[in-house]
Amino acid sequence: MTQDNREFVLSAWRAFANHDLETIAAYFTEDAEWLAPAGNATAVALDVPSHMVGRSAIAQFIANDFPRLFARDVSVSFRGVYAEGDRVIVEETMSATLVNGNSYVNDYCFIFELQGGLIHRVREYMDTARGHRMVFTEALRTD
Fold first, then answer.
1. Which parts form a coiled-coil structure per UniProt (predicted)?
2. Could you say which DSSP state residue 118 is in?
C-alpha cells in the first residue's frame, strides 16, 4: 500500500501540471485541506487563502489561479519522495517564469495525508522570504 500511495501522489503531480480542473479534483477527498504558510508570496500575490478547504477550492487554485502567477516554463525537480503508510513526503525544487518576468526557483516540502485512497490533507513548506523576494521584486532590466 505504501508504494501505491507513493505512485498515487506522483500521478497527482502529473495531473496538476495539466491544469484540468476535473482531473485534479478527482485526487482529493471532498473535505480535503491544503495548508501553506500564512502570508506566503503566492497567496498574497493572487489574493487567495493560504489554507484552502475543499476539493473544489484546491482544484480551482491549481487549475486556474496558479497559472496567473507562474506564467511559463514551470518545472519540478523531485529531490525525494518518501512514503510510510498513508503519508507521502515530497521534496522538490520548482522553477518557473513569473508573470512579472522574474525567474522563480524555490525548494518545497509537501506532506500528503491520504484517506480512503485520496488526498485528504497537504501541508506545504517553503522558503517564504525567498518566495517574497522573487514575486515582489521588480524584474531586472537588461537594456
1. none
2. E
| Spatial CB neighbours of 125, under 8 Å, sequence gap ≥ 6 | 37, 108, 109, 110
**Domains detected in the chain:** 2-135 (3.10.450.50)
As to burial, measured by CB atoms within 10 angstroms (0-12 exposed, 13-18 middle, 19+ buried), residue 104 is buried
DSSP state, residue 101: S
Within 10 angstroms of residue 105's Cβ, the number of other Cβ atoms is 12
Single out the residue of 71, 64, 76, 68 nearest to residue 12, CA to CA: 76
Residue 117, pLDDT above cutoff 90: yes
Query: What tens digit of pLDDT does each residue of 26-44 get?
Result: 999 999 999 999 999 999 9
User: Of 32, 25, 19, 11, which is closest to residue 116 (Cα–Cα)?
Assistant: 32
The strand pair at 51-53 and 87-98 is best described as unpaired
The H-assigned helical ranges of the chain are 2-18, 21-25, 41-46, 55-60, 66-69, 128-136
- The per-residue pLDDT for range 42-90, each reduced to its tens digit, is 999 999 999 999 999 999 999 999 999 999 999 999 999 999 999 999 9
